[in-house]
Design goal:
The protein is α+β, with helices and mostly antiparallel strands and about 400 residues long. The chain is built from 18 helices and ten strands.
Length: about 400
């Protein structure tokens, strides 16, 4: 059985493949390489159910115990908070939730706006620029690095390692990047112990050293997760959203004329071009039935928000961008206890970026109209490699 998720065409435009799979069955078994298989969830109702089913575990250490995977992924990445179940997940998440509440994020709005304006100041009207390299990447990288206290000089390396972590089909690159970013964060933690500051990272260090609520390994892992997850999805949200708006110029013009529409626009852009195509995998702790399909115990399960958010059973005419759409319940940030805790920050960064771009560059257009954009070669994320525009 061939794997439709490994077809080069899938990385350029996954939606026809995902729609065909969903039409055949919203839950089905797909090959995963090495003679193994996974179960792919593409239907909205089934995805929402799977996100909250406690029989679908994220404890990958338990799943891979005693198995030779041939991988050398650093434990700080392979055994992060994303790969835990309650009560461990609950304890770890509680330590960082307060940094990403709507109130905490609202206090960051002026800083996000200043960073956005500084980046857009470098855009020259009529001169081609890459909106990914000149906005979608540096904005969220700068914000999360500022929160964690990552020095300016190290931020380019952080972006490189993060990008490598999602190199689909290239396990050696992924494993190498995992060690580079984990070693870097361990060194940064050591430096901040010597010279404390008011960063989120120092808050976590105090939880480790003062209250003994984190092991050293957990501290490094949580810091790595915040660093990577804190900008990857937002970069994709901004880049994907800009492309979608530029392909439907009336939508971009509406944001210029109706800036208060931006929050609704962010949700529709999240639904329309979900930054996370496939959620990190889960596995069944016992046999379950999902979407009428029987899934054996110890089976990997992949939930596809990108497919669920275009399920016509939930969203009418799902392949059309509609800023007036009721997007309530979209799954771009997941659902349940593992729902993205950084969602308020991602929304804020994207909303400020879209509003500022629409206001400052009302005639913004694609530099090469009709050209096929180049997408990053990764199954988990859905994001552009570049987006050439003319301000």
């Amino acid at each position: 059985m061939s794997n439709p998720l490994q077809d080069p065409a899938f990385f350029q435009d996954p939606y026809p493949t995902l729609a065909a799979l969903r039409s055949a069955s919203p839950v089905q078994r797909v090959p995963a390489g090495g003679g193994r298989s996974s179960y792919l969830v593409t239907g909205y109702a089934e995805a929402r159910e799977a996100f909250t089913d406690p029989r679908l575990s994220k404890d990958t250490a338990r799943f891979f115990a005693g198995k030779d995977t041939g991988r050398t992924l650093h434990p700080a990445v392979s055994q992060s908070m994303l790969a835990t179940d309650p009560p461990q997940h609950t304890r770890l998440r509680s330590l960082v939730t307060k940094a990403f509440t709507p109130g905490a994020v609202a206090r960051l709005h002026p800083y996000i706006a200043r960073v956005t304006d500084a980046l857009l100041d470098a855009w020259v009207p009529g001169v081609r620029t890459d909106a990914i390299e000149r906005l979608a990447v540096p904005l969220p990288v700068t914000v999360i690095c500022q929160l964690l206290g990552v020095p300016d000089a190290d931020r380019a390396a952080v972006r490189t390692w993060s990008n490598e972590l999602f190199a689909a089909g290239q396990p050696e690159r992924i494993d190498s990047a995992s060690h580079a970013v984990a070693d870097y964060m361990a060194d940064l933690i050591t430096a901040k112990r010597r010279t404390p500051d008011d960063s989120l990272l120092n808050d976590l260090i105090r939880a480790r050293d003062g209250e003994d609520r984190l092991s050293e390994d957990e501290l490094v892992s949580l810091a790595v997760l915040l660093l990577v997850a804190g900008h990857e999805t937002t970069t994709n949200l901004i880049g994907n959203g800009l492309l979608a708006l530029l392909r439907t110029p009336d939508s971009l013009h509406r944001l210029r004329d109706q800036p208060d529409l931006v929050d609704a626009a962010v949700d529709e852009l999240l639904r329309f071009e979900s930054p996370v195509s496939m959620a990190t995998f889960r596995f069944t702790t016992e046999a379950i039935s999902l979407g009428g399909v029987e899934i054996p115990p110890s089976s990997p399960v992949l939930i596809a928000p990108g497919a669920a958010n275009r399920d016509p059973a939930r969203f009418s005419d799902p392949d059309r961008l509609d800023l007036d759409r009721d997007t309530k319940g979209h799954l771009a940030f997941g659902h349940g206890i593992h729902r993205c805790l950084g969602a308020p920050l991602a929304r804020a960064e994207a909303a400020i970026a879209f509003r500022r771009v629409a206001a400052r560059f009302p005639e913004l257009r694609l530099a090469v109209p009709g050209a096929e954009p180049q997408w990053r070669h990764t199954r988990l994320m859905r994001g552009l490699a570049e987006l050439p525009v003319l301000p």
